[in-house]
Specification:
The protein is an alpha/beta fold. It folds into two domains: about 1-75 and about 160-220, P-loop containing nucleotide triphosphate hydrolases (Rossmann fold, 3-Layer(aba) Sandwich), CATH 3.40.50.300; about 90-155, no CATH class. It is built from six helices and ten strands. It has helices spanning about 45-55, 95-100, 115-130, 145-155, 175-185, 205, and strands at about 5-20, 20-30, 35-40, 60-70, 70-75, 80, 160-165, 190-195, 210-215, 215-220. The strands form two sheets. A six-stranded mixed sheet has the order 6-7-8-3-9-10. It has a four-stranded antiparallel sheet with strand order 2-1-4-5, with helices on one face. Helix 3 packs antiparallel against helix 4. The longest helix is centred in the last third of the chain and has 14 residues, at about 175-185. The chain starts with 6 loop residues before the first strand and ends with a strand. Bound molecules: adenosine-5'-triphosphate. Pfam families: ABC_tran.
Length: about 220
């Protein structure tokens, strides 16, 4: 019964222009708490721009994004974000475990001040991502897939209500990709997932909705 589903994000009449160029036009999208939503579409279609608007990292030229918790407007929700790998400056002198720690809300500068529970959460995430042995390695010395897994650990460590992933499988190998999709299937039982993907392979099997964005939005499934 769709009417009883719990709305969590509402994108209302959103348009975006860069200079005069329209990137997104009249986007309306309601995301429900139990959604695993895949966003697909061509290069330059506006997928990342829409994610950035939802995250509040980019202001739309028109329209708004609203969040809800149990039917009430909410100012902010706990959102985990895995950006496209190429937006991370891997020259930044920070280690794998520090990146994962930075995903904890209100991340503190001195790591010894994290509570025991927080340290356990990070430990669990390092193991889950297969990164335990790389914990002290600076991120500049990681492969693309290892960095992607580190960033996925950061996105997941705080147990977010919404998980937003931009092309999560771009750099990971087939073995980790399969594990990642199994993991996302598990995460989806508790959290809302929005995932951008060019290819509609395995991920569409675990998603319940697929939309395509090419300036405008079309519900595919
Ligand atoms: N900061 C910016 N200034 C100007 N134009 C931009 C900027 N960021 C993105 N664009 C343009 O907006 C359009 C949409 O980009 P966006 O990254 O949202 O697309 P995408 O669907 O995520 O693409 P891809 O699949 O290639 O990652 C593109 O034409 C891009 O060149």
């Amino acid at each position: 019964m769709p009417l009883l589903r719990n709305k969590i994000i509402e994108v209302a009449d959103v348009s975006l222009r860069y200079e005069r160029l329209p990137v997104l036009t009249d986007i309306d999208l309601t995301v429900f708490k139990d959604d695993f939503l895949v966003i697909t579409g061509p290069n330059g279609g506006g997928k990342t721009s829409l994610l950035r608007i939802i995250l509040g990292l980019q202001l739309p030229s028109r329209g708004a994004v609203h969040f809800y918790r149990e039917g009430q407007l909410a100012h902010n929700l706990n959102i985990g974000y895995l950006p496209q790998k190429n937006v991370i400056d891997s020259r930044f002198p920070i280690t794998v475990s520090e990146v994962v720690f930075s995903g904890l809300s209100g991340s503190k500068k001195i790591f010894s001040r994290f509570t025991e529970k927080e340290q356990e959460q990070v430990e669990k995430m390092l193991l889950l991502m297969g990164l335990a042995e790389l914990r002290d390695r600076p991120i500049g010395q990681l492969s693309g897939g290892q960095l992607q897994r580190t960033l996925l650990g950061r996105a997941l460590v705080s147990d977010p209500e919404i998980l937003i992933l931009d092309e999560p499988s771009s750099y990971v190998d087939k073995a980790f990709e399969t594990r990642m999709y199994d993991l996302l299937g598990e995460v989806a039982k508790k959290a809302t997932i929005l995932l951008v993907s060019h290819e509609l392979s395995r991920v569409t099997e675990i998603a319940n909705r697929v939309v395509r964005i090419n300036k405008t939005l079309e519900e595919i499934r």
